[in-house]
Amino acid sequence: MASILVAGATGFVGRRLVPALAEAGHDVRAMTRNPDEYAGPARPVAGDVADAGSLADAMAGATVAYYLVHGLGSRDFETEDARAAQNFGAAAARAGVRQIVYLGGLGSDRDDLSPHLRSRREAERLLAAAGVPVTTLRAAIIVGHGGISWEMTRELVDALPVMIAPRWVNTRVQPIWIGDAVRYLVGVAEREEALGRTYEIGGADVLTYRRMMQVLGRILNRRPLPVFIAPVATPRASALWLSLITRVDPVTGRNLLESVSNEVIVTDDAITDLVPGPVLGYRQMVLAALRERLAALTGSADDGGEREQHGQ
Ligand SMILES: NC(=O)c1ccc[n+]([C@@H]2O[C@H](COP(=O)([O-])OP(=O)(O)OC[C@H]3O[C@@H](n4cnc5c(N)ncnc54)[C@H](OP(=O)(O)O)[C@@H]3O)[C@@H](O)[C@H]2O)c1
């Protein structure tokens, strides 16, 4: 049993990870900037990654620290995320943490990565800079009720009779079900062979964004969404348009949209030796996420932890 700190415990991934770690027998602390509002199953601790001084108490006694924090909603997220990762890595080293587990983004370093993906990659380096071994899991879109990229896609397909999209709709992506991502995150804790290693994680299907929207359209609206290419749509125009159709704010929308020209697929499946087990395909994960949404709307149990979040 490890003593585990989860930074980002109140987020989409953290809300599912915390109970899974507790179920695996670990002693879990949930780090948040608002511990008084925390309603999850772990012990809440205050901590703000932008404030290095606030991390010492949160980190004290932890042997493993999960880092599930990002500043996508900020215009200057690159500077803020870099400082935050540096603060977290340094505090972990001072507290004697033996392993940091970080969930970052897929995408090839040989590609011209978007600022968002570049920043996620930089965080890997900065978290490790003070000497604590980092285990990085890199993922593309994580599908599950409440996930920002998933909800953005769902709202878009739900709202539109046809889609006029930029060329990026032909980029390939390998989405992963939130339950599978959490299983991998839990599975690397305290594993000697995972220290200092980077793993790519993905679901069973590689598909283009166009195909993703068509599959979703068939499930939501009983017909595939017709997608037409408009070659001259800028990220700024697309983000503004996106914020009109979905609930995503324009800054987050733009930061996410800039990544869609980068292919995000698994090229090395070493994680499947370390944490074996089947993963869901896209259609299965869409159906599971929609079931969770229905459960959250009707207040039944299978809601992926969303009611808990709404109560915060
Ligand atoms: N969602 C996806 O599809 C996806 C895909 C690939 C990778 N990832 C990665 O997975 C990680 C988690 O993503 P998510 O979707 O779960 O994010 P999220 O729902 O937006 O949650 C973000 C979390 O960060 C915490 N946070 C933000 N600023 C903070 C600060 N200054 N100090 C301390 N905590 C702070 C928030 O906690 P409080 O507000 O309670 O403090 C919240 O719990 C990120 O690193 C992301 O890049 C996500």
Automatic annotation (TrEMBL):
GO terms, molecular function: protein-containing complex binding
Q: Which Gene3D superfamilies match?
A: NAD(P)-binding Rossmann-like Domain (3.40.50.720)
Q: NAD(P)-binding domain location, by residue?
A: 8-142
Q: Which Pfam families match?
A: NAD_binding_10
- Record's protein name: Uncharacterized protein YbjT (DUF2867 family)
